[in-house]
């Protein structure tokens, strides 16, 4: 009689990994259909199907799956959003994430359908992670990343910097939507801010500045921070998830940043900080599609930016690893 195999572990994690794709697909389909826009109050599957013009029986099955995924609640055959679903996934709410999730899906998940081809043939031509039009389109949707929790968290950290009450002027380098600047300026009685980015990208910046009544204190400078002058006399220069574009020119950019700061000024870089030989934390997976398509590795190892700051002449650097809704990221704060 042949011995039956014995297991020394469980294959559960592999099954969970496979099934993990299902809630993501269900979520994206619900966003595209506008399901969450209808369910502030309890509704029957027949009502939802009528509003969405979808198949009644399949609509009920789909709504059940949204309950399974902890996006809806079900009582007596009726369905309603959970509170955080309305908060983040209903169109028109201040913290709506739908556009950000769609953009991230298109940038980080959808390209992996060509993964075998990219592995066999190498990088693919076409618009990549450095494409200005891509980021111009994304600037408004990506603002959701900074609104609320993240904006308040970063403003809290910046406002604790030594000398913050005396700050007069800050620069948001490659700031895109400029939302972090709005939070920082709002946390200060008089500081003004400048959001620096390429012309196509700053259209959304201007809209946010006007929407939140900050035009008297926040301005825009247009250009390429790798080649154009940054100005001078800043108490704080802030850079969030933008130094990846300068990875090959980091030393020269930090020299420019150092020169643009006042004595005792700060440069704060909020970025990925990869560990375990460039494989952790999970945020590293987000770089895979862009790296495969472009042939360039955009991720920073933890400590890489801090070391470059010291090399550029900054007298001290404080580094923090922060838990964010998108995973663990590093904040390096250098002082001139």
From TrEMBL:
Residues 156-265 form the O-methyltransferase C-terminal domain. GO terms for biological process: methylation. InterPro entries: COMT-like, COMT_C, COMT_dimerisation, SAM-dependent_MTases_sf, WH-like_DNA-bd_sf, WH_DNA-bd_sf. Gene3D superfamilies: Vaccinia Virus protein VP39, Winged helix-like DNA-binding domain superfamily/Winged helix DNA-binding domain. SUPFAM superfamilies: S-adenosyl-L-methionine-dependent methyltransferases, Winged helix' DNA-binding domain. The keyword Disulfide bond does not apply. Pfam families: Dimerisation, Methyltransf_2. This is Methyltransferase type 12. PANTHER family: TRANS-ACONITATE 2-METHYLTRANSFERASE-RELATED. Residues 15-86 form the O-methyltransferase dimerisation domain. Keywords: Methyltransferase, S-adenosyl-L-methionine, Transferase. It comes from the Bacteria.
